[in-house]
Every structure is written in C-alpha cells, then in structure tokens.
Design brief:
Layout (H helix, E strand, L loop, with lengths): L5 E6 L4 H14 L26 E7 L5 H12 L4 H15 L2 E3 L6 H5 L4 H4 L6 H18 L4 E6 L16 H9 L8 H11 L3 E4 L9 H10 L2 E3 L7 H14 L3 E11 L2 H6 L2 H12 L1 H6 L4 E8 L6 E11 L5 E11 H22 L3 E2 L18 H21 L1
Parallel strand pairs: 1-2, 1-4, 2-3, 4-5, 5-6, 6-11, 7-8
Antiparallel strand pairs: 7-9, 9-10
The structure holds nicotinamide-adenine-dinucleotide.
C-alpha cells in the first residue's frame, strides 16, 4: 500500500502535552514504546487502516522559544517520566521537527500567557486579526506543500486562554467575518483565529483545550464551506473522566448526590497559567457542568485547581462525594486520582489525529460528534456519560470498518 503523509500542526507546539506527543510518536516509530494508553490500538480499530507513526510529520505554532529536547529534559528532570535512553534514541528526529515550528499569535491571550512569550512572538503584537489569520494560514499551507502532505490536522494544545465576551459564542460566519475585517480590535480569541486559519488552509481542527476554538456556529458554517472537520473541547483525561464514569452510576441506582467537591493540585506550566483567575474560569466551567447534565439536578459543587510547583506534571485530584441513600441515610465516596497529566493526554491527542485523518478519508465535513468520549465539553453531542459516548465511537468504528471491507 502506498504510504500516506499526514501533517500534525500543534498549536502550543513545545508545551508539555505537545512534547509528549512528539516524544511518543518518535518512540513508537523506533519501537521504543508499546501502545498502552492508545484507544486506537484496541482490537476493534485494527480494520480501519489508521495512519501509522512513520507517516506523521510534526509542525506547529509556539510563542516561547525552546526545543523538543530541552522540553523533554524538563519533563524527565521535574516529573520523572520517560528516560534519557529513550530521549537519546530519538533526538535527531526531534531536532527535525523543531525546524517546522513557527511563531504563534498573542491576539487576545491575556497578560498571563503573554508573559510566557519570546521575542519572535512579541514582534507580532501589532498585527490585526485578519493579518494574524493570513499569517497562520500561510504557515500551515507552506508546511503542507514543503513536506508534500496529503492532509494536515491542526491540534490546539496551547495554554487555556481567558474566555471571550459571551456574545462571541453565538456568532455566525458573517459576524465572524465582520469582526475580522472591522477597524476596531476584534473580540475573537487566539484559539478561534487558529481554527479559522486551519480551515482557510483546508486543514482539519481539533481543540484539546477548554478555549473556545471552533465552538461557535460561524466556525461550523465555515468548516462545512471549506469541507473540513472539527471537534473539541478540552481533553477528558483524569478527574472529569472519573466523573463521567461515576455520576451515571449514582443516577442509575437512584442515589442522590448532595455535593461533589474536587480539589486538584499540580505544578506544570499549564497549572501556572491556570493560576490566573481569568484563565482558570474556562477550565473550572469545563470540569463542572457535566454533573448537572448526567444527574438531571444540580448538587452543590466545588472545583478547585491550585498550582503547587513541586508536583511538576503530576496531578492529584481528591474528590469527596456526599450522597443520600435509602431512608435518607447520608453516605460518602472519596477517591484520589494521581496521574501524570501529559502522559494521560498525549495518547488521546494521537488517537484524535488518527480518527480525524480516517474520517477525512470518508469525505465528511463539520463536527465529529462521535468523538465525545475524548472531551470534557464535547461538541455536537448532548451525551455526557462516558459509556454512551464510547458506544457512539464504537458504532462509528463498526460503520467505518464495514465501508473499509466494501472498498
Ligand atoms: N491532561 C492534560 O494535560 C490536559 C487535559 C485536558 C486539556 N489540557 C489542555 O491542553 C493544553 C496544553 O496543556 P499542557 O500541559 O501542554 O500546557 P503547557 O503550558 O505545558 O503548554 C502550552 C503551550 O502553549 C504555548 N502557547 C500558549 N499560548 C499560545 C498561543 N497563543 N499560540 C501558540 N502557543 C501558545 C505555551 O508557550 C506552551 O508551550 C492546556 O490548555 C490544557 O488545559 C491538558
């Protein structure tokens, strides 16, 4: 079979999740890692002819100036993940990918994210929104042409930005265009400018962050017009995955959840950005809404996210669930989740690349609603419970495998 060539354009290209994706892909390619953690390596996905590790080329946008090897070294030293031997085996591959990273945009990212930026990104600060889109789209188009790629998937794994004004969430495509071409400063956040640029260049867009990205009616209109796919928001990797699994159990047993308190502590760069109340607002909302959706009533909830530097990439979530059983008897479930954030997220990002690439070959466009099990705030589906979301994915697998057999 002729080899495919697929571009993965990472927004936030040298961050913790992105670096782990790149290290993971390079390690898989060299046979230095097995596929534990990858949903798409489960047996039912085998007939789908998904993209292979050596068919993927990495590029991306960043606002800091560093390298994959340097960022991987930080993960090794601060968080004690992977090891020097793995890194040594893949360093030349990482250096090749470093060359494909271009300066991102600071448009409407807020003071906290701007404080991370290096000189190249700071130089772009005076661009208008339409200039930003044109420059970002040009970078992606050049990447596709210079590496002779069949298609490109733009994956947003950049820092969580502060939410834009509420009205933006309702904008249709003509509102978006008006805002882009107007004389005054646009309210569109960077994540949406990245999504527009992706679609303008004919690429698909996946938003692994809580930022708005393509989650407004106008962007879905544009995706269909450009015949590209999109989906998001906010990867479901740890505490919220537990909520999406456990809350349906309380509902099914008619146990009344009175309160659900979740305290999260972690110490990576994401945690540092989320320490700013403006950026944190987006994340807390994304972690909190699904209980009401699953239970059908709103228990008292509290989600706290605290930056504790010594924890590095390791996150501890402690959840206290106070619920009522028969004859009004109060009971408690407590759990502690201790996961390594980037190592939980990276395989899901690789899965989303493979599934988006496969769906692109089916020739559809718009929101990929069958990917809800990957997200805290899934687009295109009202189904918040994990088991049903996973069922939707398996139905898609079955349909697609059948088509594969018919080809
Ligand atoms: N388990 C997880 O790690 C997990 C789960 C769900 C969602 N997420 C989300 O994924 C994102 C990435 O997480 P992370 O741990 O890698 O964070 P990180 O802080 O390590 O990486 C983010 C990267 O984005 C870069 N960046 C910031 N603004 C940018 C912009 N406008 N353009 C280009 N680059 C920009 C930063 O310089 C940084 O390198 C965050 O939004 C996080 O909330 C992570």
């Amino acid at each position: 079979m002729a080899k495919r060539k697929v571009g993965v354009w990472l927004v936030g290209a040298w961050g913790g999740v992105a670096t782990t994706v790149v290290v993971g892909l390079a390690a898989l390619r060299k046979g230095l890692s097995d596929t534990t953690g990858l949903v798409t390596s489960l047996p039912p996905f085998a007939p789908l002819d998904l993209v292979q590790w050596d068919e993927i080329v990495i590029g991306g946008h960043e606002i800091r100036e560093t390298t994959y090897s340097a960022e991987a070294q930080v993960l090794i030293e601060k968080s004690h993940v992977f090891n020097e031997k793995t890194l040594a085996g893949i360093s030349s591959q990482l250096a090749r990918f470093d060359r494909n990273i271009r300066p991102g945009t600071l448009y409407n990212v807020g003071a906290k994210i701007e404080s991370l930026a290096g000189p190249l990104a700071l130089k772009t600060r005076n661009e208008t929104a339409s200039h930003v889109v044109a420059r970002l789209a040009k970078d992606i188009t050049e990447f596709k042409a210079s590496h002779k790629l069949d298609r490109v998937i733009v994956m947003n794994v950049s820092s969580t930005e502060p939410p834009p004004p509420d009205e933006v969430r309702t904008w249709n495509w003509s509102d978006v265009q008006k805002s882009l071409s107007g004389k005054s400063h646009s309210s569109l956040p960077a994540s949406t400018l990245y999504a527009i640029a992706a679609m303008q260049s004919g690429s698909h867009f996946v938003n692994f962050t809580p930022s708005i990205g393509s989650d407004l009616p106008g962007l879905d209109e544009y995706a269909r017009k450009q015949q590209v796919l999109h989906v998001g928001r906010d990867g479901k990797t740890g505490e919220t995955l537990m909520k999406a699994v456990l809350a349906p159990m309380f509902a099914a047993r008619n146990l009344k959840v009175m309160s659900w308190v979740g305290h999260n502590i972690f110490g990576n760069l994401d945690g540092k950005v989320l320490d700013d109340p403006a950026n944190k607002a987006n994340k807390v909302k994304s972690k909190d809404h699904l209980l009401t959706e699953i239970l059908g009533y709103k228990p008292q909830t509290l989600v706290s996210i605290e930056y504790v530097e010594s924890m590095g990439d390791w996150k501890t979530a402690w959840d206290h669930i106070h619920f009522q059983g028969f004859l009004g008897t109060p009971m408690v479930l407590q759990f502690t989740w201790q996961g390594c954030d980037s190592l939980l997220a990276a395989p899901l990002v690789i899965d989303l690349v493979r599934l988006t690439e496969r769906e692109a070959r089916r020739g559809t466009s718009g929101v990929m609603s069958h990917l809800g099990s990957f997200f805290k705030s899934p687009m295109g589906t009202d189904e918040p419970a994990f088991a049903y979301q996973f069922q939707q994915l398996m139905q898609w697998v079955e349909r697609t495998a059948k088509e594969e057999g018919e080809e």
